[in-house]
Design goal:
The protein folds into three domains: about 1-100 and about 290-320, Rossmann fold; about 105-285, NAD(P)-binding Rossmann-like Domain (Rossmann fold, 3-Layer(aba) Sandwich), CATH 3.40.50.720; about 325-400, 2-Layer Sandwich (Alpha-Beta Plaits). α1 runs parallel beside α11 (about 295-315) and α5 packs across α7. About 30% of the residues lie in helices and about 20% in strands. It has a seven-stranded parallel β-sheet with strand order 8-7-6-9-10-11-12, with helices on both faces. It has a five-stranded parallel β-sheet with strand order 2-1-3-4-5. β4, α4 and β5 (about 95) form a beta-alpha-beta unit. It has 13 helices and 16 strands. This is D-3-phosphoglycerate dehydrogenase.
Length: about 400
């Protein structure tokens, strides 16, 4: 059982103050760190921490989870969770939460701004003006209206971008490995090759799972149309930046906008190294797709609330790795949280232990997901330590908490 007043929270990567305020309002002890921590640093800091908050740079590895002697939940204050060993977290009964919707608008608006800027060659014109060169010409500048946008990855961001791009008069194609419903007049491509060969602008919105590492390289750039524009606001590891530079310097691509990189500096002000530096037709941004004040505030509040509800009520709604269970909070009762291997007979065994010790069940909810089950049981009256010992001693038990 965790004493609410002694819950320790470690927030990394300058998570928004709204998250700090929400967690402190719950009575938790919050430490906020500006930068990301590497594996060795995080292992040194994770002991005694109940809640860990990160963004995209911090890697929560198996070694980190092994060192985390008190950790009950991880909050990813971003969309992606590929920086977390989700299988390891599940094995430890540690819940993981993210913010799958809070910053989609910010990413979409940045993508649209970059598409317009590159199609009109605004960055090049701006640079020349600052050098004192008046290059008033329409050559190479176009309207986005009537041009075709190809979206690789038709998830939350891809679909919203699809709708807004159509409102600008663009034609939209998309490719996704999953079967997705087309919104508006968007056309689904049967293959990525079809999308690349027909699109004036190609934008990536895929996740950073290991299987996606380097999946967009020289072969894919070669299949893009001459004079096309390329964007990546998803994950840095999915693109071969040397191949991208070659496609740009050869004149095959007219421009690119990149917000994410295979290796990124740990903190603000650190040196940024990339093969794409110095190219006039490339927009480089420091992983700011979701970095608007509105998005970061929404993310801070959303994820912090998920962490608080998990600690106080055991609810796992929208958890990335554990079954989704939400049972309304009950007064004057104890709540037993049982994370277990998804095997037949677990519920019957739990209830048999409770019945043997004359424990009255007032409410109960079970859900399973893959290898794991998540059971919330509300009980009234007193119970002996032997009850918890027997529940903990079940061969299927992964983690037991009492609220």
């Amino acid at each position: 059982m965790i004493d609410q007043a002694k819950v320790r929270v470690l927030l990394l990567e300058s998570i928004h103050p709204d998250a700090v305020s929400r967690l402190e309002a719950a009575g938790y002890q919050v430490e906020s760190v500006r930068n990301a921590l590497d594996e060795v640093e995080l292992i040194e800091r994770i002991r005694g921490v109940h809640l860990l908050g990160i963004r995209s740079k911090t890697q929560v590895t198996a070694k980190v989870l092994e060192a985390a002697d008190s950790l009950v939940a991880i909050g990813a204050f971003c969309i992606g969770t590929d920086q977390i060993d989700l299988a390891g977290a599940s094995q430890a009964g540690v819940a993981v939460f993210n913010a799958p919707f809070s910053n989609t608008r910010s990413v979409v608006e940045l993508a649209l701004a970059e598409i317009i800027a590159m199609t009109r060659r605004l960055t090049e014109k701006n640079s020349l003006m600052h050098e004192g060169v008046w290059d008033k010409a329409a050559i190479g500048s176009h309207e986005v209206r009537g041009r075709r946008l190809g979206i690789v990855g038709y998830g939350n961001i891809g679909t919203q971008l699809s709708v807004l791009a159509e409102n600008l008069g663009m034609h939209v194609s998309f490719y996704d490995t999953a079967d997705k419903l087309a919104l508006g007049n968007a056309q689904r491509c049967a293959s990525m090759e079809e999308l690349l060969e027909t699109s004036d602008v190609v934008t990536l919105h895929v996740d950073g799972r290991p299987g996606n590492a380097g999946f967009f390289g020289a072969e894919q750039f070669a299949k893009m149309r001459d004079g096309a524009i390329f964007l990546n606001l998803s994950r840095g590891i999915v693109v071969d930046h040397v191949a991208l530079r070659d496609s740009l310097t050869s004149g095959h691509l007219a421009g690119a906008a990149v917000d994410v990189f295979p290796t990124e500096p740990k903190g603000r002000g650190d040196e940024f190294v990339s093969e794409l530096r110095g190219l006039p037709n490339v927009i480089l941004t420091p992983h700011i797709g979701g970095s608007t004040e509105e998005a970061q505030s929404d993310i801070g509040d959303f994820v912090a609330n998920k962490l608080v509800h998990f600690v106080q009520e055991g609810n796992t709604t929208l958890s990335v790795n554990l079954p989704s269970v939400a049972l309304p909070a009950a007064t004057d009762m104890s709540r037993i949280i049982h994370v277990h291997l998804n095997m037949p007979g677990v519920l019957a065994q739990v209830n048999s232990i409770l019945a043997e010790h004359s424990v009255n069940v007032e409410g109960q909810l079970l859900s399973t997901r893959g290898e794991y089950g998540y059971l919330i049981t509300d009980i009234s009256g007193s119970y002996s330590a032997d009850v918890l010992d027997k529940l903990q001693g079940m061969s299927q038990t992964v983690r037991l908490r009492v609220l």
